[in-house]
Amino acid sequence: MQLEEIYRVNIPNDINLKETSQMCGDIGDQPNQRTFGAFLYINSHMEFQEIRGLGGAFSELGGKALLALSDEDQKQVCKDIVYDKFNYFRLPIGASDFALDAYSLDDLEDDFEMESFSLERDEKYMIPYMAMCRAYAPNMGIHASPWSPPAWMKDNKQMAGAGGAGKLIDDPRYYDAYAKYFVRVVEEYANKGFDIDRINVQNEPEANPIFPGCNMDVQQMAKLIRDHMVPAFEAAELDTKIFAGTFRTINEATACEFLSENPGIEEYIEGIGTQYTTMQPLYNILQNYPGLKLMHTESVCYKGENTWEQAIALYMNIVNYINAGCDTFTYWNMILNTKGTSTWGWKQNSMVTIDEEEKTYQYNPDFYVMALAGKCIKPGARRIVYAARSKVGIAFKNVDGSIHFMVSNFLDKEDVGTVTIDQEKFELKLKPMSITAFKVS
């Protein structure tokens, strides 16, 4: 076997690791700058979950910013983000908080048969954005989720606003209409050449935002899935898998609540989507429902500072979620303009910032961390045993038998040690203030 460095992120020496630790909170591994000794242990004979993929989310504001560039620069940005890195992307169904305004894919009042369903709105920015990324990820996978049902399906008759998120009307006619809506999403995007692999039923059902949202308690979500979506998907002969969530479980274990309060619901779903969570609920789910898949659906987006401290916290999140059993990791806004602000006033981070007036772009620290992860974590790979003292990382066995791993060194000098892989030892040199991806073949 040979050990080869395939990608390295060099971190500025003046970052504040204490600040990064505070960002990580209690979710798991945190940066440690106190310990020398790069001694890693990797065993490929103990395999865990299969990786479905890594990527980021499309948004209308991101697509608008991208299309402001020249044709050549549009292609370059998409290639730099995607090629040989990403293969699995998130699609908002209708408006997210980073849409130009609130809209659904069928805004005609009481259109229970979905006769006015249309992707016309998405054809302006979203679909061109997706198509450009697909050029560099021909095996693109997509997971999709709505922020809100169409306004006419909700008790407050609005998708967004000061009155709160509102709820899906508790009436079989509306459940059936919403299930038909999901079927049309899958079918119409397939007609555009985009296969939706998974649908998460509701983005952050616990939240009550002023931007598009919907309060959906765990009993209503189970009813929608079991009694309406599953029969509709079966009747339409869709291969798209249904996932509960996406649950934001940082303050409450709603993912566990969904399963425990709806006995047998695990038979109707492929898995659970989570974001902004501590790791304990994920461990609990895997322990009690070993057949369910876990997926990470949205990274922490911060407030648009785009700092290296936040990028290091992003690395910790990638490691923690996948070590906790998730088979995906999804960055939020891949691209934003220089304002970086949603239509509803929340400024957020992005991998790429585009100046729409000057027609220029720049890569932010998160881009380099996600590029490292995408270079290392490949679709179809299996997570394998990784152990190290103070060197935060993770390891995978790929379908071709090669082993990839990434490892951190948050010391201000080179750290030299060994990595033992299936009882074979290699000398390991880690550059100061770096995160490195290696390949063993």
Q: What would you call the structural class? A: alpha/beta
Give the helix proportion (percent range).
25-40%
Number of separate helices? 10
Number of strands: 19
> Which CATH class of the largest domain is shown?
Alpha Beta
Name the beta content range. Answer: 25-35%
> How many domain modules?
2
Distance between the termini: 5 Å
Can you summarize this structure?
With 441 residues, this protein is of the alpha/beta class. Helix content is 27%, strand content 27%.
How would you characterize the overall build of this protein?
With 441 residues, the chain is α/β, with parallel strands linked by helices. It has two domains: 3-48 and 384-440, Immunoglobulin-like, CATH 2.60.40; 52-379, Glycosidases (TIM Barrel), CATH 3.20.20.80. The protein is built from ten helices and 19 strands. An eight-stranded mixed beta sheet has the order 1-19-16-15-14-2-17-18. It has a six-stranded parallel beta sheet with strand order 4-5-6-7-8-9. It has a three-stranded mixed beta sheet with strand order 11-12-13. A hairpin with a 4-residue loop joins strand 12 (352-355) and strand 13 (360-363). Helix 9 (308-323) packs parallel to helix 10. The radius of gyration is 22 Å and the shape is globular. The model has no long low-confidence stretch (mean pLDDT 95).
Question: How would the blueprint of this fold be written?
Answer:
Elements: E1 3-10, H1 17-24, E2 39-50, E3 53-57, H2 60-67, H3 71-82, E4 88-93, H4 126-134, E5 141-146, H5 172-191, E6 196-200, H6 218-235, E7 241-248, H7 254-260, E8 271-275, H8 280-288, E9 293-298, H9 308-323, E10 328-333, E11 335-337, E12 352-355, E13 360-363, H10 365-376, E14 382-388, E15 393-397, E16 403-409, E17 415-421, E18 424-430, E19 434-440
Parallel strand pairs: 2-17, 3-10, 4-5, 5-6, 6-7, 7-8, 8-9, 11-12
Antiparallel strand pairs: 1-19, 2-14, 12-13, 14-15, 15-16, 16-19, 17-18
